[in-house]
């Protein structure tokens, strides 16, 4: 029963993600071993959406390291534990809480020793900028702890590149690229843990910079992004985009003019807004102002649609059934759902 609930929730979320996004492209699944311990190490841009995209398509059932401040109350702790989420404590949670991470690292080592999968973000924070940030030592500390407790275990590191077209907009497109497996044990030097940590971070960072768009820190970020947008590059193809970044390095552009979409797109957006007017109003007037950061925009919007859209359809069905008939109401709902899917996949920007 427990496994059934997990599978059902996973199916609902996966269906929601594919309905919410205009396009989801997944590549590199063949690099993920099915019978070895795995640590997924993605770049981090769009808060919880990043986690959900990997969890529903990685062909493993990973544990997740999650910020500790969400583990509030017995109910939430029970739910998060069921979905294999582990709290990680940060300085902002209070210096006295950091000692709790020692037990969490031991739990992670135990998980990996059993041949299971673990997902954590090596950048240790999220940001919409199209560059790979400096990696923290958190994931290397877990690996070192695992090798100290379980010397015979090898762990396959899978860097994951998340590539959004526009992570804070709707509908968006995303490509998830799984990199080639890296043997963590091959880089473990028992008598030089600093070298071990450095080598692990360098190997993961190098792959991440190939699996996602990476604008080097020494470049003018805004100018380069503006130029890439002007050239209408395909951000779902990081290899192509990174080649263009190298090509454009010496090209200076202050233009902020982006490629214009066809005027008909704005008309379609208006039709979409009319068909979903109650939800559009609720989102813009109620929930959207509560989004704390742009990085959370996609997460909040997806959760809102996943939870509220079925309720909207139910209320619409009841209302139309009372005014017209059940047959007409059902037909109207089917047409509305199909139209919305068409808008998301084809009709909207």
Word description of this protein:
There is one protein chain. The protein is an alpha/beta fold. The protein folds into three domains: 210 residues, Glycerol-3-phosphate (1)-acyltransferase (3-Layer(aba) Sandwich); 44 residues, no CATH class; 84 residues, no CATH class. Helix content is 50%, strand content 11%. It contains twelve helices and eight strands. Strands 1, 2, 3, 4, 5, 6, 7 and 8 form an eight-stranded mixed β-sheet that branches. A hairpin with an 8-residue loop joins β6 and β7. The longest helix has 27 residues. It is globular, with a radius of gyration of 22 Å. The two termini are 41 Å apart.
Q: Which keywords apply here?
A:
349 residues, alpha/beta, 12 helices, transferase
Task: Give a quick rundown of the structure.
This protein is an alpha/beta fold and 349 residues long. It has twelve helices and eight strands.
Average pLDDT taken over every residue: 87
Query: Can you identify the CATH class of the largest domain?
Result: Alpha Beta
Q: Count every helix, treating DSSP H or I runs of 4 or more residues as helices.
A: 12
Q: In CATH, what is the homologous superfamily of the largest domain?
A: Glycerol-3-phosphate (1)-acyltransferase
CATH topology of the largest domain: Glycerol-3-phosphate (1)-acyltransferase
Task: From the alpha carbons, calculate the radius of gyration and give it in angstroms.
Answer: 22 Å
**CATH architectural label of the largest domain:** 3-Layer(aba) Sandwich
Query: Shape, please?
Result: globular
Percent in strands:
5-15%
In percent, how helical is the residue content? 40-55%
Q: Main β-sheet, in a few words? A: 8 strands, mixed
> Structural class, please?
alpha/beta
The residue ranges in which pLDDT falls below 50 over 5 or more consecutive positions are: 252-262
Tally of distinct domains: 3
Order of helices and strands: HEEHEHEHEHEEEHHHHHHH
Q: In angstroms, what separates the terminal alpha carbons?
A: 41 Å
Number of DSSP-assigned strands: 8
GO molecular function: acyltransferase activity
Organism: Maribacter dokdonensis
Pfam family, one: Acyltransferase
Keywords: Acyltransferase, Membrane, Transferase, Transmembrane, Transmembrane helix
